[in-house]
Amino acid sequence: MTESARPTTPGSARPATPRQVADAHVAAVCALDPITATALGTDPASDRLPDTSPAGLDAEADLDRATLDELERVLREDPALREDPVERRCARLLRERLTASLAQHQAGEGLRQVSNLFSPLHSIRQVFSMMPTATEEDWSVLARRLARVPEAYRGYRESLTAGADRGLFAAPRQVHTVVGQLGEWLAGPYFASVVAAGPDSLRTQLDDAARLADGAVAEVRDFLRDEYAPRAEGTPDAVGRERYARFARSWNGTDLGAGTGLEDAYAWGWAEHQRILVEQRAAAHEVLAGATPMQAMRWLDEHGESVQGVEQVRQRLQAMMDEAMDALDGTHFSLAEPIRRVEAMIAPPGSAAAPYYTRPTQDFSRPGRTWLPTLGRERFPLWDLVSTWYHEGVPGHHLQLAQWAYVSGDLSTYQTSLGSIGANVEGWALYAERLMDELGFLTDPGARLGYLDAQQMRAVRVVVDIGMHLELPIPDDAEGSLAEHRGKPWTPELARAFFGENCGRDAAFLDSELVRYLGMPGQAISYKLGERAWLAGREAARRAHGDAFDLKAWHMAALSQGSLGLDDLERELAEL
């Protein structure tokens, strides 16, 4: 870590640069939220869980305000820091992220956090998959943290109750979906399965803690089903323009709510949907003569290459990432040795349907990992997994987020972890899929149709996410099931029908995705909007350098900038 980026510690001098302010903020966040410390690897022996009650949410907001005050003090005392490009980027990121977070807090969004993917319920469960379990002491730490799950889940219930008392509710669709997820967790039961591999010397402690934790899951399920859901009845799925704009800013790092920004993004998403559909129709003929895209994808489900067995597909995905790493390192990327380690994992039962990635610790003691939800399946067609693993693993999320960890000492821990913005991260991952197509890695007709299906899914996300939440009119040139609804506002039911006609994934995946969009407004649009910025930034840099443009050098410089929102991403990429 460079001296200028070194965080302060209690009793040390006050921060003197934005990077020092940012890293002091990370340290303070880790003290409030030990899950963050586990994710970063800064406190692997922590047995604590965050305070998820209203008091805990207020403490996080107080920290955000104090950090903003400290940032302004530093910049006021040394105006020259505004001219340093690294310090300037860090200051802009920190200010934008914290003000966006405070806007959400002031609106009470933390008091109605119910969704099928990101919520305190899910983060508390997920932390146990990130904890070390190599030694008896590791298991002892895990047991102590497990015993704190009931308290953490009680705090979460207190927050939801406080929100309900203020008239702030999650929509019933979210509540019922999460109740179903918790039922799946209890079928294991999940926490009992976590401790099954623990040492015999701690068996009683582990089993007792797991029993309490699984009991707490049952209590949350019963609370949501029997107390919260009846009170939430009638809450609309659509969050409306004001709430949507706040959420969209959180995920994208820009204010899309001003002027016609959301309508413009909606129109662009529809145009992308139509553009990709032309490519899909041509690619479908390559798979099966005369077939429509949906017919070709259904044919691939039945007759295309597949892998039988959960462990077998995990091994195949691991091999895919290893092969991509070998092919790209030295040609289109220059990868440090720690980045070359990535692990394919199987997601635990009760996860959302979409695959996901968890980043490495800052010291790489825990590697980056991709996670495949199996949804009870034993057979796995590959046509739609190839491009997905370029997205989740290599050269997608893993190369970006592992590179961030690698350069965190030259930037700040904040810029390479807590300050990450969805449009940057998901935009890069979608860019990575396109890059692999550009480089000729998707010549197999099935795999290329899978890539186009992934592109189409992200375009459809822009349309239905903005369309549903703002209740915008369906375009006048809509076809299929939408044709008779042209000019009428989007509903979740129409969005699901449209999604089903334009995405080759199975029904369970599509149902899970629709709930995700309704419960996480503005997240779904970050993929395509972010990819657009990455592509525009690359093209501008290519024009600026002409024949001297070096794609490998540009990739590494771009991945070493740390987090940037859409307010800054395209411009900063263009200047590399």
Automatic annotation (TrEMBL):
It comes from the Bacteria. Residues 1-11 have a biased composition (Polar residues). Transmembrane segments: none annotated. Residues 1-22, 37-57 are annotated as: Disordered. PANTHER family: DUF885 DOMAIN-CONTAINING PROTEIN, GLR0591 PROTEIN. This is DUF885 domain-containing protein. It comes from Goekera deserti.
